[in-house]
Amino acid sequence: MLGASAPLATGAITVQAATTTTQNSQTEMYNFVRNTFKKHHVRGVVTVVKNGVPQTISYGYAWYGKRIGNGNPKVTYPTASLQKVITAAIIVQLINETKNTDKAFNQNTKISRWYPNLKNANNISVGNLMTHTSGITAAKTEINRGIVYSEADALDWVVKNINNSPSDNVGTYHYNNSNFILLTGIIRQITGLSYEQNIQTRIIQKLGLKNTYLYQNIPKGITDPISYYSNGGKNYQNANYIKASLASQIPGAGNLFTTPDEYYRIQVGLSDGSILDKSDFHYLTHLNSKITEYCGGMYLKQNESLKSAYGSFYGMHFGTWVQLTTDNQNGIVMFLNQTNDNENAEKDVGYEILQHIKPNTFVSR
């Protein structure tokens, strides 16, 4: 009996020691992240990924007036431009699904097929939209027009706005929400379903996400956060929030809400076969029209060992940043709802955390 029980006891001690080490490590990371947020006067929530293990850490209030804390399960956060890679991923899915059909298309297909009345559409490819090299410079997509649009009406407005605005040469890089809003229209026309329905079946249901919604689908009892400004002085100043009218203007480019842990699951799904497989993700991020590090909603950096994206909203104080190793084993998904409206300052916060996760691996910008 003594001989038989000894290995079990040793194994139990080993497991207990490993568990204690992990708990100590996560406690240390928890304290480090919260102290870093405090030092920089930001508030928000971040999913820290270290050696493939995600840990979500929050600090401050998502809604100070109601004392609803960041990280509360009743809060879902705006992804801003971090949504764009999801829209692009659905396009890649459809490229695969329509092969050998009368709807077949690829990155080089001109968008005049779907937008015959759009200026210069005969020269703009699907890939140009996905790499912001369409030459479209039309602005005002984030200026709240005070109208709650349907997807179709939002697309109609964008087409008219592009037609009435100056354009640059196709192949010239201009980061512009209009490109990805137009992609939602392509998704609608190819599938015969709304972008909303495609997101629901292809992303949310596919991954079993419980706190991810397009703005119009956020249920009663769940709230999006308030954004606040801080310049190092008082906290929770200049409160602002995303209105239904603004969210409805930017389908596919900034109307998705989620939590950092669920967004991390989406990032994993972009290459593990759930949404895309590795070859699909390579296609997504290596389009022929790519002329910068940006492609398909993500920036690839450090010899493509890292992927990142940043997002914000004009006139508000949100800042979203994802930087992960391309194998999804290390990095952060950071959603801030109190900032000083400075992208580099926000990234400084994230970079301190990234350096703490795995030094000399990540980039500061």
Key phrases:
single chain, Beta-lactamase, globular, AmpC-like, 365 residues, alpha+beta, disordered N terminus, nine-stranded mixed beta sheet, 17% strand
Description:
With 365 residues, this protein is of the alpha+beta class. It has one domain (43-357): DD-peptidase/beta-lactamase superfamily (Beta-lactamase), CATH 3.40.710.10. It has helices at 2-40, 84-97, 126-130, 151-163, 177-191, 195-207, 244-249, 260-269, 278-284, 343-357; strands at 43-50, 53-59, 61-63, 68-69, 77-78, 213-214, 227-229, 237-240, 256-258, 294-295, 298-301, 306-311, 319-325, 331-339. The strands form three sheets. Strands 1, 2, 7, 8, 10, 11, 12, 13 and 14 form a nine-stranded mixed beta sheet that branches. Strands 5-9-6 form a three-stranded antiparallel beta sheet. The chain has a two-stranded antiparallel ribbon with strand order 3-4. Helix 2 runs parallel beside helix 5 (177-191) and helix 4 (151-163) crosses helix 5.
Overview in brief:
With 365 residues, the chain is of the alpha+beta class. It contains 10 helices and 14 strands.
Task: Summarize the helices and strands and which ones pair or pack.
Layout: H1 2-40, E1 43-50, E2 53-59, E3 61-63, E4 68-69, E5 77-78, H2 84-97, H3 126-130, H4 151-163, H5 177-191, H6 195-207, E6 213-214, E7 227-229, E8 237-240, H7 244-249, E9 256-258, H8 260-269, H9 278-284, E10 294-295, E11 298-301, E12 306-311, E13 319-325, E14 331-339, H10 343-357
Parallel strand pairs: 7-14
Antiparallel strand pairs: 1-2, 1-14, 3-4, 5-9, 6-9, 7-8, 10-11, 11-12, 12-13, 13-14
Helix pairs in contact: 1-10, 2-5, 2-9, 4-5
Signal peptide: 1-17
Organism: Lactobacillus panisapium
Protein name: Beta-lactamase family protein
